């Protein structure tokens, strides 16, 4: 009975419908999708994915970058919330992983770009182990993209160009935050106030001269593997993987395209 009611209820919530039947209204809370007890939380059956297109090696673009551009634009056009949000996974030289959500800012012929503090945990791990994995998940469209590759720093010129395009408050925030370090309760506010006085700007100003810090800039993930995932009913998902041929140059990569079992 729960399974019968759960899928329509979750579909109602997914479509943000305002006219869900009253009998389903109660199931729109988290109580409808989990069973909890003092010692555990158990996830109940998940609704079925319903993508209408079919992704195969024959329908995918020859280049994974072109395929990503197509899917990203469709995510934007279909109102996906924060389509640029992606999971970034790094690891220490000993293989201890860590992951966090960052914002994708650019894709070019070489790879995927994001910006951060170069003294942060993610940057320290990338300096010691210059490989990373990215994952995009566009829930509203039941699509995901997974990327694996090595990393490189952007040039100071590229990083500065982007930094100077950010709002004044974001530029001040980059200076104020010693990212990933332990701070006192009021340290951040005090640092921000000092920086506002130093640069002669305030957080809400529309314009102001805030220089690019030497400890801040961009990373580019140069992909060796990209997988596109499209959700289907009964967990029989479409999966297409691109593997870069090692003999091909990074500037003009060639790709082997395979369909993967779900």
Automatic annotation (TrEMBL):
Keywords: Flavoprotein, FMN, Oxidoreductase
An annotated Gene Ontology molecular function: pyridoxamine phosphate oxidase activity
InterPro entries named among the record's database cross-references: Pyridox_Oxase (IPR000659), Pyridox_Oxase_N (IPR011576), Pyridoxamine_oxidase_dimer_C (IPR019576), Split_barrel_FMN-bd (IPR012349)
Enzyme Commission identifier(s): 1.4.3.5
Oxidoreductase as UniProt keyword: yes
Top EC class of this enzyme: oxidoreductase
Superkingdom, natural source: Eukaryota
Named cofactor requirement(s): FMN
Record Pfam families: PNP_phzG_C, PNPOx_N
Protein name: pyridoxal 5'-phosphate synthase
Residue span(s) of domain Pyridoxamine 5'-phosphate oxidase N-terminal: 73-187
Annotated ranges, domain Pyridoxine 5'-phosphate oxidase dimerisation C-terminal: 216-262
Annotated pathway: Cofactor metabolism; pyridoxal 5'-phosphate salvage; pyridoxal 5'-phosphate from pyridoxamine 5'-phosphate: step 1/1; Cofactor metabolism; pyridoxal 5'-phosphate salvage; pyridoxal 5'-phosphate from pyridoxine 5'-phosphate: step 1/1
Keyword Flavoprotein: yes
GO terms (BP aspect): pyridoxine biosynthetic process
Gene3D superfamilies: Electron Transport, Fmn-binding Protein, Chain A
